[in-house]
């Protein structure tokens, strides 16, 4: 009897990771941990943001008490922006980061990156996107040239293959069979 199992599907999710100014010296060490944790680094960029750019990047935090300190801190030195990819990238990256407060992270998640590299609530060492929509917005902010297209899955993928790919393949393979060239390549 054949077991009924779902067809394998590949889901690749992307998230933005930032190595903040105070831990930039640990960049290689952090990247090694990222790679050993099953992530693929698809984009990397070292840059220094102006206070205005930081304000735009953290616009969702505007009006909060820590906002001026956050923009001053994030523009105080170079940062490394990374686009990380893997299955469930956002949730795995958040898990690897630990709580946003480094003090809390040291108590509850002592092996998390923020517990290891962060110093306090503001200087927590690293940034991670909170959701798919924030990841897309943040990746576009740090890498304006990158093309972010949703990866079709399920019925959308089957529809795309049936409408766009299969007819072209069928026509090409039919022509190839009729011609029977000595070197089909």
Give a quick summary of the entry.
Keywords: Kinase, Transferase. With 185 residues, this protein is of the alpha+beta class.
Question: What keywords describe this structure?
Answer:
185 residues; alpha+beta; Alpha-Beta Plaits; 2 domains; 14% strand; elongated
- The order of strands across the largest sheet is 2-3-1-4
Q: CATH class of the largest domain, please?
A: Alpha Beta
Give the N-to-C terminal Cα separation.
41 Å
Assign the CATH superfamily of the largest domain.
Nucleoside diphosphate kinase-like domain
Shape: elongated
- Count of individual helical segments: 8
**CATH topology-level fold name of the largest domain:** Alpha-Beta Plaits
What class would the helix/strand composition place it in? alpha+beta
Per DSSP, what share of the residues sits in E-state strands of 2 or more residues? Answer: 5-15%
Cα-based radius of gyration, to the nearest Å = 22 Å
- The strand count comes to 4
Portion of residues within helices: 40-55%
Describe the sheet with the most strands.
Answer: 4 strands, antiparallel
**Average pLDDT taken over every residue:** 88
Please give the domain count: 2
H/E element sequence: EHEHHEHHHEHH
Give start-end ranges of low-pLDDT stretches.
none
What is the annotated CATH architecture of the largest domain?
Answer: 2-Layer Sandwich
């Amino acid at each position: 009897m054949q077991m009924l199992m779902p067809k394998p599907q590949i889901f690749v999710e992307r998230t933005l990771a930032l190595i903040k100014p105070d831990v930039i010296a640990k960049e290689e060490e952090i990247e090694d941990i990222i790679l050993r944790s099953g992530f693929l680094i698809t984009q990397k960029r070292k840059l220094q943001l102006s206070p205005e750019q930081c304000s735009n990047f953290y616009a969702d935090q505007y009006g909060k008490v820590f906002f001026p300190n956050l923009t001053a801190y994030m523009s105080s030195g170079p940062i490394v922006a990374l686009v990380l990819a893997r299955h469930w990238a956002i949730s795995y990256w958040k898990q690897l980061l630990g709580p946003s407060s480094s003090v809390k992270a040291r108590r509850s998640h002592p092996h998390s990156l923020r517990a290891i590299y962060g110093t306090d609530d503001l200087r927590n060492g690293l940034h991670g996107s909170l959701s798919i929509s924030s990841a897309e917005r943040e990746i576009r902010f740090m890498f304006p040239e990158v093309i972010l297209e949703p990866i079709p899955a399920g019925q959308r993928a089957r529809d795309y293959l049936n409408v766009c790919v299969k007819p072209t393949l069928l026509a090409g393979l039919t022509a190839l069979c009729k011609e029977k060239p000595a070197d089909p390549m």
